[in-house]
Amino acid sequence: MVLISFIVGCVSQTAFFDPKPAGTPSFRDIPKETAKSSLPNYFLESPDLITVEAVHLVPKSPYMLRVFDVIALDVIGTPVEEPIIGNFSVEPGGTIQLGGAYGAVRIEGLSLAEAEQSIARHLIWSPENTQGRLGPHTVVSAKLVRMSDVQQIAGTHLIAPDGYITLGSYGRVYINGLTVDECREAIEFHLSKALEHPQVAVDVYSYNSKEYYVIFQSAAMDELVFVFPYTGNETVLKAIGNTNGLAPNSSKRIWVARPVGNTHKPVILPVDWVAVTAYGMPQTNYQLLPGDRVFVVESRWVAADGVLARIIAPFERIMGFSLLGATTATRFYGKVLVGGGERGYGGYGY
Hints:
This protein is of the alpha+beta class. It folds into three domains: about 1-40 and about 210-300, Outer membrane lipoprotein wza fold like; about 50-60 and about 150-205, wza like domain (wza like fold, 2-Layer Sandwich), CATH 3.30.1950.10; about 70-145. The chain has helices at about 1-10, 110-125, 150-155, 180-190, 235-240, 275, 300-340, and strands at about 50-60, 70-75, 85-90, 95, 105, 140-145, 155-160, 165, 170-175, 195-205, 210-215, 225-230, 250-260, 265-270, 295-300. Strands 12-11-15-13-14 form a five-stranded mixed sheet. A three-stranded antiparallel sheet has the order 7-1-10. The longest helix has about 40 residues, at about 300-340. About 25% of the residues are buried. Residues about 1-10 and about 340-350 have low confidence and may be disordered.
């Protein structure tokens, strides 16, 4: 009886008794499988991933053309069989290829108006430009179709540990702790320094900053903790399913421990595992919130056996060493007596 009492005292009390904190709320008001609630605004934090889409990005005038910009050209006065019309990309080196026998023109670093003049000078014949193939009435019209910097703005962005995202040459924007709408406004305000009334669309690509936990109790070993990213639709059943089910040493005594700030009264939500799984009753299949701990209690008999094993293990080691020493000594002296016979140790030259 003394040994049993000692073992019970060593086992964590959670293996035998359910906690009864004063912070337990009315279960009717708690979101669950068939009565989920919409969560409050999601606040972005590192290392969340967001996507930014360019809705309306027009540079302020004058815009200087850059490599990989795309412009639309429409040249009036070209032969019908050799038109110059369509979209042209500014290639590495700062030139655009006009095609055919027209050659290439360097326009990097020029405004659109300057680019039109440069292309016209290249195409129109003059005593200074004998390679020109078009007449003096040629008209060149150029429009900006796509800025190369859009690729730096649009796409997936990781919120860095310091709370910033990087928009390439447009710099960095601090968005830590903002909602999605506030993040969009912050990006548009930042881009307005270089663009005319910029408009972007922002969404969360990957929810990485909020987690929930599934903890399997173990008296013989340390607790096994699983961490999963929170997306807003998790329930207790889904959380356990993400761990491939209950562990072999687990009981069916489960509860959700919910952090409630600085108060010393944690919220504990008991789960009726058999009712949830075997009978499909959703009353205790709670909708999880960020930071929730789904705690799975170890089987009482497994817990007692684990503690007993930990208590006995040191004595087994001591007894094992003692038995090994005794066996070694017996074998040694046995060999000595057999070799020496009645003459004691003479057989070994002593």
